[in-house]
Amino acid sequence: MQPEFWHKKWESNQIGFHQPEVNPYLQRHWSGLAIPPQSRVLVPLCGKSLDLLWLAGQGYRVLGVELSEKAVEDFFREQQLQPQISEEGGFKVYRAGAIELWCGDFFALSASDVADCTALYDRAALIALPAPMRERYAAHLLSILPTGLRGLLITLDYDQAQMPGPPFAVTDGEVQQLFGGDWAVQALEGQDVLSESGKFLQAGVTRLEERVYRLAAQ
């Protein structure tokens, strides 16, 4: 999947993946990670998610990474924030208060960029990627994130033959394969959400489950 795919999605406003409210799993399970206030939280492929504001409102420093400059600019405009803009390596960095959004290629992120991150929140990154890129994504996270980091991962699971992604189906077995060797992986919750998902119903999908995982880098 090429960057142009996501640029076109944002430019044409085909962003059905954007949630107009804070994710309820984040609100329900974040406190259980016991992340100290003022910790820095990495949010890969963050878009213009309201989850960024929620995390900042809980007293955390937020590092979002997003490929689309339009998504980043939309976030600050819609939240009526005036960011300071600078360059960090291959990234264009927008900063306002506790929120930093780094616009660029997530795979260009280095260990030094995230050395002080102690938490991870992935609602939309893993499921946005086809299988080969999911392997690359997980391997990159494992290579750059510090030991001791904790986080939440949210996935979708359905019969991929019934509808092409994104969002892509990620099974529990794949989560364990991608992260279980180096991280502690704990399933926290799973819900059947098919009745709430018009896009999937219209496509003829017969099963749709959201799952939430606690991850801990060992």
Molecular structure report:
Helix content is 27%, strand content 28%. The protein starts with a helix and ends with a strand. The chain has one domain (38-217): Vaccinia Virus protein VP39 (Rossmann fold, 3-Layer(aba) Sandwich), CATH 3.40.50.150. The chain is globular, with a radius of gyration of 17 Å. The chain has a nine-stranded mixed β-sheet, with helices on both faces. With 218 residues, it is an alpha/beta fold. The chain has seven helices and nine strands; from the N terminus they run ααβαβαββββαβαβαβ. It has helices at 3-11, 24-29, 51-57, 69-78, 131-144, 172-179, 198-202, and strands at 40-44, 61-66, 84-88, 91-96, 99-103, 117-122, 150-157, 183-192, 209-217.
What's the short story on this structure?
The protein has 218 residues and is an alpha/beta fold. The protein has helices spanning 3-11, 24-29, 51-57, 69-78, 131-144, 172-179, 198-202, and strands at residues 40-44, 61-66, 84-88, 91-96, 99-103, 117-122, 150-157, 183-192, 209-217.
